[in-house]
Amino acid sequence: MKLSVVMSVYNGERFLREALESILSQTFADFEFIIINDGSKDGSLGIIKKHPDPRMKVISRENRGLIYSLNEGIGSAQGEYIARMDADDISLPNRLEEQVRFLDDHPDVWLCGSWAELIDEKGEKQGELKTPIGVRNVKKSFFWHNPFIHPSVIFRKKAVRELGGYNPKFRHVEDYELWSRLMKRHPADNLPLFLIQYRILPQSVTRQFNFRMRWGGLKVRLKYLFS
Fold it and tell me: Keywords for this entry (predicted)?
């Protein structure tokens, strides 16, 4: 199998249907869709069950948090590549096709992200988020900020498993910390294409934990420089 898509869901019923359908309707079809229902208390599991598809692999259990869930998904993945997805975002139809093609054509690159359209809770476009392009530019920008949009990335499973996955000590910046370890060993890049719609909500983690994420980001950069 070429690809595993990993998505953790916790009380995500509001936007979950759109997220599921955006993956199941991709132009690239050779994937498994690993969905971890992380102890949801709302109707998330019912929504998942209403979308029967042989590519879906559902793990439902008590709440253990995002980092544990992502590592669990990576651990059970059968694909050569792993794509991240969040339960409130939307992958555009050609997302997986474009990113798989890029990694196939660039065997030296081990992580690939993309640009994103920013949408609100109604799905209306609020702006665009363009990440750095080119391996050198991505590496330069890393010292100032996270150069990847987490739910837009696809990476080679082998490398992330060898690194031990996401580090639970870096909550809220777990992706940035993982990329720091990955980029010590392998090139990473972004596609200059809008492949996801990234939902910005008042209660999003980015807004709620802004100070913690800034402090966490500083710790990641220092660790990257001196480890």
Answer: Glycosyltransferase, Transferase
| CA nearest to 170, candidates 65, 59, 89 | 65
Who's near 189: CB < 8 A, 6+ residues apart? 102, 106, 109, 111, 112, 113, 133, 134, 135, 138
Structure confidence at residue 206 (pLDDT): 52
Could you read off the pLDDT of 16-64 as tens digits, one per residue? 999 999 999 999 999 999 999 999 999 999 999 999 999 999 999 999 9
Outline where DSSP puts E strands in the chain: 3-9, 31-38, 56-61, 81-86, 90-91, 111-119, 125-129, 154-156, 188-199
Nearest-angstrom CA–CA distance, 207 and 224: 25
Confidence of residue 143 (pLDDT cuts 50, 70, 90): confident
Query: What per-residue confidence (pLDDT) applies to 218?
Result: 64
CATH T-level assignment (fold) for domain 3-226? Spore Coat Polysaccharide Biosynthesis Protein SpsA; Chain A (3.90.550)
> Closest Cα to residue 2, out of 99, 87, 75?
99
